[in-house]
Write a structure and sequence with these properties.
This protein is mainly beta. Among the domains are: 355-478, no CATH class; 486-674, no CATH class; 736-897, no CATH class. It is built from 6 helices and 55 strands. The strands form 6 sheets. The protein has a 30-stranded antiparallel β-sheet that branches. The chain has a 17-stranded antiparallel β-sheet that branches. A hairpin with a 2-residue loop joins β49 and β50. It starts with a helix and ends in a 6-residue tail after the last strand. Mean pLDDT is 82; it is low at 1-74, 746-751, 774-783 and 786-790.
Length: 903
């Protein structure tokens, strides 16, 4: 028994000494070296290992008795670890080493790296990359806590205090990319950084610009607070610097100050423009208040709001006001002008309420606002001659029959004559078509079963005023109002190949103002017509009727040669004859006499209607009976495709439309035939059509160039005399039209602000420029391979053309009174550089039309643009460069030269 005890003691001493020798092997620099991987572990090196360490007791090396210190001896959270190659546990040093694609999860913290060492004595976690091959340093650490992600070169993290220090860390917060030499994580919401740079560049490793700060307090998704900060462009420091700075980083909309632009205007002096405040009212609405001030006393205000409620409605409201001063008070050329513009766009989601709808499109204000505003260069708006608005509400009552009711307020303003026409309001109601004799089941046949009638009601309150009296009490001085009831009755039937239709219409007009006319002799003995307004209810009734017959004739030709390019041609002819009659309503007319009831001496007998100038105008006094003749043609063909592999024939249009129309007045005593009207649409290519029109008059002219009741052919001329002709075409071509495998182009839509102000959908009249929103007009993002696109042989381009010509010879003018060509286009010289513009030439007046040139350069993080109107009264230019990111949109610079308002 004693012998066995000796052997056991010797064996324990041997194992203990061997273990102690291995544990005492320390590196020269004092840092622990991972133990050698045992042979058994080498065999399992390629097998992923996953192990959960739960509540590992900490080893105490302090000489103070353990029971005198209240320390946490167990981990607060459960550690999950993973490594691709191996996981090694050093029991002596109480460390865990993970190698190759290592990952540790501790609570809401995740650390990924090439190598991770966990020291259970101190609670520190070391993470850094590794070198696997010649490619260099790989698998750099990634520190994730919640939604915050940091990518440094190395990490020291304490799992007990959850504090961390990272070196050369990289993180993305909103639009910002932040790189710092040293970062100290205090808790999950506060980081302190040293020698950090932050930028909105898409390439944070080599940014075009960045802000460099020595010390930073960084609160993720909230703010960056810095000490001394400088702006660097291409690694070159700039004079732009601040002793301290605050950068908001929230992803939510926040209210804040909008910095103004500074510049000089030759007319108003130095200025601060578009400065104000942005209010993030709520999730559905915002508000922007901007102001302008000039050293000569001029000022302006601008209020904008966008709102949207998903699945219900969306819109925008904009109000602009300017008080412009010219020259100085006391001088003869001093002038003060107040101008304003209101723009409101509202649209309702069709799914929100299918039976009712509210919409608004308002564009009203001073007629010369866009032409003489000191805050905008909106080329399209300056060329618009009419401002129009409409606010409407409609309601449908489903059923049989269906009832529809709508009301609207409309506005139309001529910016040249300053005449404003309003309807306040317009009421419309209708009852859907009723077939009183239709069978309850089956289709309707014959004349009687197809008889249908309808009821329509329209009421208006019309106002005509001027720009100066608009929105004043004087605008109601010439208001007229009334109601029109209309009942149309119609039927249709077929007889063989012919389709017949007959119609009649009954109208009843209610008015609340009529006009009495009389002749009054002035001081010179000349009788003048005087109109007196009579307020009160009055009404008149009218009716008319008509009928028409038409058919369709088909003509076709088929090639007998299967190799012929044109295999078949089809010609469709649709002739139509119609008759219409309007009876005479002479009972509503009175003789124009003097106050004594006598005709004026030396004047012919004249008649007038008290309804002239009223809501529904005067009924016709003369009986008319007309026969209208018309023929419409179109020609199509089937051709072989150029691609021989395609056997299916391709359908093309040779003639889209060609129509001939004229009429004969049966009740007329002379000049019964109306001019022959010709209208045609000829397709040239898939995207190019030519529109033609001409008027041919059968009657001749006398020596005073007036029409006479003699056919032109009987007067020694041709059968028909050309009195008017016109040609119009507009089309767009681009580089993709000449590519075999071309992709469908996206619809090119004009700037929304251009359309809201009444501009064209294309850019033939130029594009609008909005100084306050210039930095938000970002081009579409596109990936650019610098090496691949360094030499670009295909340059994208597009061109818009519009040509119009009008020839007039109604009274032997034999002149082209209108002929112009307009061109606009864009050329993309490189993926980030484009040039565009628009111009035109007026051949009739021999002059160049409105022309602009624009340059745009995408500088990745910056956007640069230059717009120039080189000639004409709108001569001006505008240059802009600024950071595209909305968080730094106030970092911009622009210069401009406004058009001279004296023109």
């Amino acid at each position: 028994m004693h012998l066995h005890i000796k052997h056991i003691i010797l064996l324990l001493l041997f194992l203990t000494s061997a273990t102690a020798v291995i544990a005492q092997e320390l590196p020269e620099n004092g840092t622990p070296i991972p133990a050698e991987v045992p042979e058994k572990e080498e065999e399992e090196k390629k097998v992923p290992v996953k192990e959960e360490v739960i509540q590992i007791p900490l080893v105490k090396k302090d000489s103070v008795p353990q029971d005198s210190i209240k320390s946490k001896t167990f981990l607060e959270y459960r550690i999950e670890s993973y490594a691709k190659d191996y996981k090694r546990i050093d029991k002596k040093g109480n460390t865990i080493t993970l190698y190759n694609e290592a990952k540790v999860i501790y609570g809401d913290i995740t650390i990924e790296a090439g190598k991770i060492i966990i020291n259970n004595n101190t609670g520190d976690v070391f993470a850094y990359g590794i070198v696997l091959d010649s490619t260099g340093y790989q698998q750099k650490p990634v520190f994730t806590q919640g939604a915050n992600v940091v990518k440094p070169d190395s990490i020291i993290f304490n799992k007990d205090s959850q504090k961390a220090i990272t070196y050369n860390s990289r993180t993305t917060q909103g639009e910002f990319n932040v790189l710092a030499e040293t970062t100290k994580k205090v808790n999950d919401s506060v980081f302190y950084m040293q020698n950090a740079r932050f930028t909105t560049s898409k390439n944070p490793e080599n940014p075009e610009y960045y802000f460099f700060a020595r010390k930073i307090k960084f609160v993720p998704k909230k703010k960056i607070v810095t000490g001394l900060v400088n702006m660097y462009i291409a690694d070159v420091p700039t004079p732009l610097g601040l002793p301290f700075a605050f950068f908001p980083m929230t992803t939510e909309r926040k209210s804040g100050v909008i910095l103004p632009n500074f510049g000089n205007n030759n007319n108003q002096g130095y200025f601060l423009q578009n400065g104000g405040y942005y209010f993030a009212v709520n999730d559905y609405m915002d508000l922007t208040v901007l102001g302008d001030y000039f050293t000569n006393g001029s000022y302006g205000a601008r209020v904008e709001s966008d709102y949207s409620v998903r699945y219900k409605y969306s819109g925008s409201l904009r109000f602009l006001y300017e008080n412009q001063l010219q020259s100085e008070r006391g001088f003869s050329d001093f002038a003060q002008t107040n101008r304003y513009n209101i723009n409101w766009q509202h649209s309702q989601d069709s799914k929100s309420n299918p039976n009712s709808r509210f919409s608004a499109s308002v564009n009203l204000g001073s007629s010369q606002f866009f032409r003489q505003s000191f805050n905008q260069v909106n080329q399209s708006a300056t060329l618009v001659n009419n401002l129009s608005s409409s606010v409407s509400y409609s309601k449908s009552f489903p059923g049989e029959p269906q009832v529809n009711i709508s009301t609207s307020v409309t506005h139309n303003q001529n910016t040249n004559t300053n005449v404003v026409n309003l309807t306040l309001p317009t009421l419309q109601a209708s009852v859907s078509r009723i077939f009183p004799f239709a069978p309850k089941e089956g289709t309707k046949k014959g004349i009687v079963q197809n008889i249908n009638l309808q009821y329509n009601l329209r009421g208006e309150n019309r106002l005509t005023t001027t720009d100066e009296d608009f929105l004043s009490s004087n605008m109601f001085d010439n208001a007229i109002s009334g109601l029109t009831h209309s009942i149309p009755i119609a039927t249709n039937f077929k007889v063989g190949y012919f389709s017949f239709s007959a119609n009649a219409n009954y109208d009843e007009n209610w008015v609340f103002q009529t006009f009495r006319q009389r002749l009054v002799e002035n001081d010179n003995g000349v009788f003048e017509t005087v109109r007196d307004t009579i307020n009160g209810f009055d009404a008149y009734r009218t009716y008319n009727y008509g009928a028409s017959v038409g058919t369709t004739v088909y003509g076709s030709w088929k090639s007998k040669n299967p190799e012929s390019k044109i295999q078949a041609v089809r010609h469709v002819i649709r002739p139509n004859i119609s008759y219409s009659a309007n009876p005479s309503f002479e009972q509503y007319y009175d003789r124009l006499v003097t106050e004594q009831g006598l005709d004026a001496p030396g004047r012919e007998e004249q008649f007038y209607s008290r309804f002239q100038g009223s809501f529904a105008a005067a009924p016709g006094r003369n009986f008319s009976s007309n026969i209208a003749l018309g023929v419409q043609n179109n020609i199509e063909a089937k051709v072989r495709d150029r691609d021989s592999t395609k056997t299916e024939l391709k359908k093309i249009q040779i003639l889209k439309s060609l129509s001939f129309n004229t009429s004969y007045n049966l009740a007329g005593d002379s000049l019964n035939w109306s001019p022959l009207q010709i209208r045609g649409v000829i397709p040239i290519t898939k995207n190019i059509d030519i529109n033609l029109d001409a008027n041919l008059d059968p009657y001749a002219l006398d020596n005073n160039n007036n029409r006479i009741d003699t056919f032109n052919v009987n007067n020694g001329g041709s059968l028909l005399r050309l009195t008017r002709a016109g040609i119009r075409t507009s089309f767009r071509i681009s580089s993709t039209d000449f590519e075999k495998d071309k992709k469908e182009e996206k619809d090119t839509k004009a700037n929304d602000r251009t359309l809201q102000n009444g501009g064209r959908a294309d850019d033939l009249f130029g594009q609008s420029i909005d100084y306050s929103r210039e930095q938000n007009q970002e081009p579409e993002e596109q990936e650019v391979d610098i090496n691949k696109d360094r030499y670009r042989f295909k340059i994208p381009w597009n061109l818009n053309f519009a040509y119009t010509m009008t020839y007039n010879n109604a009274q032997r003018q034999n002149a082209i009174n209108q002929q112009s060509l307009m061109v606009s286009g864009d050329v993309e010289l490189s993926p980030r550089w484009s040039i565009g513009g628009n111009t035109g030439y007026d051949f009739a007046n021999k002059g160049i039309s409105f022309s602009t040139i624009r340059f745009q350069r995408d500088l990745e993080s910056f956007r640069m643009s230059f717009n120039w109107t080189p000639i004409g009264p709108r001569n001006s230019w505008f240059f802009f460069i600024g950071i595209k990111a909305s968080a730094l949109s106030d970092i911009k610079w622009d210069q401009r030269r406004q058009p001279d308002p004296t023109f």
